[in-house]
C-alpha cells in the first residue's frame, strides 16, 4: 500500500469521525439528518444564488447617514468638536455644507488646532482669522457660542462682530473667556499685580442686547473683560446662569445687572478686583446657588433671595440674607486667620440656623474662645471641617479638643469629617504629657459616621477622638487616617514635608489609644505605610517596612 493511499485513508477516517462526533448516537436517521444539515450549510456558504441574494438584500437595506432627518443629523454633527465637524465637508459634495448646522461653536486652540501632543499655540491673528472664516460660512440656530483666547480691547472690532453674530443667531449660551490664565493663577497673582501691568480689557457691548435680543440668552459667562451697563440697559429677562471671572465691574453695576435678570438660578463672581460690596436688594426669587470666590476687596454680601447653596472663598465678611432664607448647603473657605469655632459662633449669620450641610475651611493659628451661649444648628446633618493648623515658632496654640463643642451646637449631626493639616512641632503623645483630658459627656444620639485625617498622634487629637467615641451612642463607623487629605497650597505645603515618622506615629497612637478603647468595634485605623507589629521587651513595637507614597 502506498504512502498516498494510507494518508488518504487516515484523512477520510478523521472526517468520518468528525461527522460522527457532531451527531447524536441514538439512531442512523439522526446521523443522516445531521449530514444533510451540514450539506445545506455548505451550500449556503458557497457562491451560489442563495448567498448572492442574501448579500444583495443586506446591501440594499443599509442606512446612509445623509438619509437621516435633518434635525437628527444636526444633533450628531453638533456632538463633534468644531474642527472635526468642519473636516466632514471634504467627505463628499453632500457633506460640504452639513457642518454649518453645528449648534455648538467652541473656538479655542484645543478645538481649532490640535497636534499630536495636545493643543498647538495659536497667535492672535491666526485665531481671529480662523474664527472670522468659520462664522462667515456658519448658519443660524446656534445654541452655544464660546471664545477662549487671550484677547484685549485692541481686538474690539473683531470681538464686536462675534458678539453681533451671537445676537443675530439668537444664541442661548455665550462664553467669552479672554485670558489664558487659570482660576488658580488669577487668585494667586491678584494681590501683587498692578493695573498698569495688565492690557486694557475688552469692553463688553451690552448695548447690542436690546429688549428682544437679550431675551434669547440663557447663560452668560464673562472672563477678563470690562462691563459697564448703559442707562437704558434692558437686561437679560430669561438669563438663568451668570458667571463673571476677573471682570472689571463696580458695585453699582453689579446691583443694576442683577436687578435686570429676575430669573437667575446660578450666580458666580470670582476674582473681581473692583468689587467692595455685593448687593441684590431686589428679590431674586429663583436664585438657588451663589458662588463668590477670591474677590479680595469685598467687605459685605447682602442678598434678598431664597438661596439653597452658598459657596464663599475670601476674608471673613458679614453675610446678610433674607430672614426667610432657605439656605441648606454652605461651603466657606476663609483665607484670613480666623478659627473655625470663632466663625461658627461669632461670624456666622444667625438667620442660617436651618443649615443641613456645612463645609468650612480655616487657618488655625490661635485658640478659639468658646461662647457662653452657643449657637444651635438643630437641622445640621453633615459637617466637614478642613483645618490648616500652623504653629508660631513651630509651636501650635490651637487646641483640637475645643472642637468637641461642635457636638453640642449640632445635636442632629449624623456625619462629621475632620481633615487636618498640621504644620507645627511634631510631638507624639506619651506618658510624660500627663493623663488624657476628658470633658463631660453629652450623649449624642444621631452621630453615625466620623472621618478624621491628618491624625499624627498629638495629645489633643487623641482626646478629641476619644470624646467623640464615648459620647456618640449611635456611632456605626469611625475612620482615622494618619495621612493628610487636604493641602493648603503654596510652595511649602507639599505632603512630602512630612516624614514617614509622622504617619507611623499617628497610626500607632490611634491603634493603641483610640482603637484600644473601642468597645463596639466601630473604629478603623488606616495610614499610608506598611508596618510590622511585634512585642519587644514586653512592649508593643511598630516597625516600618516601606515608605509612604505621596
UniProtKB/TrEMBL annotation:
Disordered, as annotated region: 1-34
A Pfam family assignment: F-box
SMART domains assigned: FBOX (SM00256)
Domain of life of the native organism: Eukaryota
InterPro entries attached to this UniProt entry: At1g61320/At1g61330-like (IPR053772), F-box-like_dom_sf (IPR036047), F-box_AtFBL13-like (IPR053781), F-box_dom (IPR001810), LRR_At1g61320_AtMIF1 (IPR055357), LRR_dom_sf (IPR032675)
Domain named F-box: residues: 62-110
Family matches, as Gene3D superfamilies: 1.20.1280.50, Ribonuclease Inhibitor
PANTHER family recorded: OS02G0105600 PROTEIN, OS07G0161500 PROTEIN
Stated name of the protein: F-box domain-containing protein
Biological source species: Urochloa decumbens
Amino acid at each position: 500500500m502506498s504512502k498516498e493511499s494510507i494518508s488518504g485513508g487516515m484523512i477520510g477516517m478523521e472526517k468520518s469521525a468528525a461527522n460522527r462526533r457532531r451527531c447524536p448516537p441514538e439512531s442512523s436517521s439522526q446521523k443522516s439528518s445531521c449530514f444533510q444539515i451540514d450539506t445545506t450549510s455548505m451550500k449556503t456558504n458557497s457562491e451560489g444564488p442563495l448567498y448572492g441574494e442574501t448579500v444583495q438584500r443586506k446591501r440594499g437595506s443599509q442606512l446612509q447617514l445623509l438619509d437621516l432627518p435633518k434635525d437628527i443629523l444636526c444633533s450628531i454633527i453638533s456632538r463633534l468638536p468644531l474642527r472635526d465637524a468642519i473636516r466632514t465637508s471634504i467627505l463628499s459634495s453632500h457633506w460640504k455644507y452639513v457642518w454649518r448646522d453645528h449648534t455648538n461653536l467652541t473656538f479655542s486652540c484645543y478645538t481649532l488646532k490640535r497636534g499630536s501632543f495636545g493643543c498647538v499655540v495659536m497667535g492672535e491673528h491666526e485665531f481671529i482669522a480662523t474664527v472670522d472664516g468659520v462664522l462667515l460660512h456658519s448658519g443660524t440656530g446656534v445654541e452655544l457660542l464660546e471664545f477662549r483666547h487671550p484677547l484685549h480691547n485692541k481686538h474690539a472690532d473683531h470681538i464686536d462682530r462675534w458678539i453681533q453674530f451671537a445676537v443675530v443667531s439668537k444664541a442661548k449660551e455665550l462664553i467669552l473667556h479672554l485670558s489664558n490664565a487659570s482660576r488658580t493663577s488669577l487668585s494667586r497673582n491678584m494681590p501683587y499685580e498692578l493695573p498698569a501691568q495688565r492690557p486694557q480689557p475688552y469692553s463688553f457691548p451690552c448695548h447690542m442686547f436690546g429688549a428682544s435680543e437679550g431675551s434669547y440668552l440663557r447663560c452668560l459667562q464673562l472672563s477678563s473683560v470690562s462691563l459697564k451697563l448703559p442707562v437704558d440697559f434692558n437686561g437679560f429677562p430669561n438669563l438663568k446662569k451668570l458667571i463673571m471671572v476677573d471682570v472689571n465691574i463696580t458695585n453699582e453695576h453689579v446691583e443694576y445687572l442683577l436687578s435686570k435678570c429676575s430669573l437667575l438660578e446660578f450666580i458666580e463672581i470670582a476674582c473681581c478686583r473692583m468689587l467692595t460690596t455685593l448687593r441684590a436688594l431686589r428679590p431674586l426669587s429663583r436664585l438657588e446657588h451663589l458662588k463668590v470666590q477670591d474677590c479680595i476687596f469685598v467687605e459685605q454680601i447682602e442678598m434678598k433671595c431664597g438661596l439653597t447653596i452658598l459657596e464663599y472663598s475670601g476674608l471673613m465678611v458679614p453675610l446678610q440674607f433674607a430672614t426667610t432664607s432657605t439656605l441648606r448647603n454652605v461651603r466657606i473657605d476663609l483665607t484670613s486667620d480666623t478659627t473655625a469655632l470663632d466663625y461658627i459662633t461669632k461670624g456666622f449669620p444667625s438667620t442660617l440656623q436651618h443649615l443641613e450641610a456645612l463645609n468650612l475651611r480655616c487657618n488655625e493659628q490661635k485658640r478659639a474662645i468658646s461662647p457662653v451661649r452657643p449657637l444651635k444648628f438643630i437641622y445640621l446633618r453633615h459637617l466637614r471641617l478642613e483645618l490648616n493648623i500652623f504653629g508660631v515658632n513651630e509651636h501650635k496654640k490651637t487646641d483640637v479638643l475645643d472642637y468637641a463643642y461642635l457636638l453640642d451646637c449640632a445635636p442632629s449631626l449624623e456625619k462629621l469629617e475632620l481633615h487636618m493639616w498640621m504644620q507645627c512641632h511634631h510631638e507624639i503623645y506619651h506618658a510624660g504629657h500627663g493623663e488624657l483630658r476628658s470633658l463631660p459627656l453629652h450623649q449624642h444620639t444621631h452621630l453615625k459616621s466620623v472621618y478624621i485625617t491628618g491624625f499624627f498622634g498629638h495629645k489633643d487629637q487623641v482626646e478629641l477622638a476619644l470624646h467623640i467615641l464615648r459620647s456618640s451612642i449611635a456611632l456605626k463607623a469611625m475612620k482615622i487616617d494618619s495621612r493628610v487629605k487636604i493641602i493648603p497650597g503654596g510652595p511649602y505645603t507639599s505632603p512630602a514635608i512630612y516624614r514617614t515618622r509622622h504617619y507611623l506615629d499617628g497610626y500607632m497612637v490611634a491603634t493603641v489609644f483610640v482603637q484600644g478603647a473601642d468597645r463596639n468595634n466601630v473604629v478603623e485605623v488606616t495610614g499610608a505605610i506598611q508596618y510590622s507589629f511585634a512585642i519587644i521587651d514586653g512592649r508593643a513595637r511598630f516597625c516600618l517596612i516601606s515608605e509612604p507614597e505621596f
